Amino acid sequence: MKIQVEGENLNVSEVEELGLANSNVFGTAMRAALPLGIKNINIDLSKTDYMDCSGLGALVALHNIARNQNGDISVNLANPAPQVQQMFELTRMDQFFPMAHA
Amino acid sequence: MRALLICPAERPEVVNLAQTMPLGLVPLVGKNILEYWLEHLVTKGVGEVTLLVSDRPDQIKAFVGNGGRWGLNVEVVVEPWELPLHFARTKYLTNSKDEWLEEPDDVIVMDYVPGLAQYPLFKSYAGWFAALQAWMPHAVTMNRIGVHEIKPGVWAGRRVRVSPTAYLEGPCFLGEGVTIGPLTTIGPMAVLEDHVVVEAGSEISHSFIGPDTMVGKLTEVKNSLAWGSTLINWKTNSCVTVPDPILLCALNGKSSRARSTGWLRQLSSLYSKNKEDFQGLWKHLLMNKEG
Question: What is the domain-level CATH number for residue A15?
């Protein structure tokens, strides 16, 4: 997983999976990398080929933590693979997270 | 009269439909495709059917038997691969032509439901869903035991339980033993096959839910074919195996019964191995209860 800070953006990419096995690691890494002044968290899901409830829960937790830290912060997801998109739709999380497609 | 039916073998475009059974046995509004064809042939005056099967013939044989259920004499013939139509005709229609239905009805590849050749079932998931949509009005108006219209456009089989707070919008079909939980929205265009359970707050529209499937709380299934834990978006052809049973999973009565038997067996074997420990534990529990 790659985490880069660019001005007001925190860009996350190369997330291979987001599930029970690594959702805690993902959450810890994100919390550690969340400096003050960030306005957007952009997560590129193009490399993610597996996601389950724990992964979705980790994204919701990240969203809540970011909101508590700075009210204006937004979590944006991009380029989910069709299977991952299906998981978002099944759990209605597609209505919760703004989703961008390349 | 006689007819030759060919069960579709592999269809790579809809490979996930045939995960657990051959395509001929895939349910379509309460019955499978083979059943619809056998019923149709009876109405055409056919008495003898030769059924060519190459994919999982044992399952087909177990289902069809000798055809007595339909008043037919069905012979299941196993072929190593699916014969092309003209080749099957040359190989099997050797007797007097008068015995067979007239061409092209004499040899049928079950790639569509009777009367809807314009809707091929197995060319894509979208095609399959379009065929399902087109077939539903015919299927529900057939003489079917226990199927009744519970509100306009909503058809239900026997032993269906619908919560009073569920919202049903036709066209919609609920198979036998379906349970619909509170605050759910089912339809429009939803087909729930036998023994589907939909938990509270879920929404299902423009979708097919395969038999013995549980749709978990607050989930949304749209433009999809869901069967067990497999979820296929028929618009995008995307397929995912849902890893969380709380969202979508197979309900298999047989296996859960088997599991419970196994669990009891394990407990009894543990008891017989550690009788003294168990008796000690039991005494301890009783003493605590009395104390």
Answer: 3.30.750.24
Short-list B33, B42, B50, CA closest to B107: B50
d(CA B273, CA B50): 56
Question: Does residue B134 lie in a domain region?
Answer: no
Range of the domain at B261: 253-290
DSSP reduced 3-state for A27:
helix
Question: Which pLDDT tens digit goes with each residue over B187-233?
Answer: 999 999 999 999 999 999 999 999 999 999 999 999 999 999 999 99
B139 part of a folded domain: no
Residue B201 resides in a domain: yes
pLDDT tens sequence across B134-185: 999 888 876 678 889 999 999 999 999 999 999 999 999 999 999 999 999 9
Identify the pLDDT of residue B270: 45
Among B242, B246, B249, the residue to mutate for chain A (most A Cβ within 10 A):
B242
Q: How far apart are CA B213 and CA B177, in angstroms?
A: 12
The CATH number covering residue B237 comes to: 2.160.10.10
Question: Is residue B274 very low, low, confident or very high in pLDDT (cuts 50, 70, 90)?
Answer: low
CA distance A98 to chain B (A): 18
| Domain extent for A72 | 2-100
- State the smallest CA–CA distance between residue B264 and chain A in angstroms: 30
pLDDT at residue B28 is higher than 90: yes
Cβ–Cβ gap B247/A85 under 8 Å: no
In a domain, B133, yes or no: no
Q: Do A89 and B240 touch (CB under 8 A)?
A: no
Nearest to B210 by CA among B23, B11, B30, B24: B30
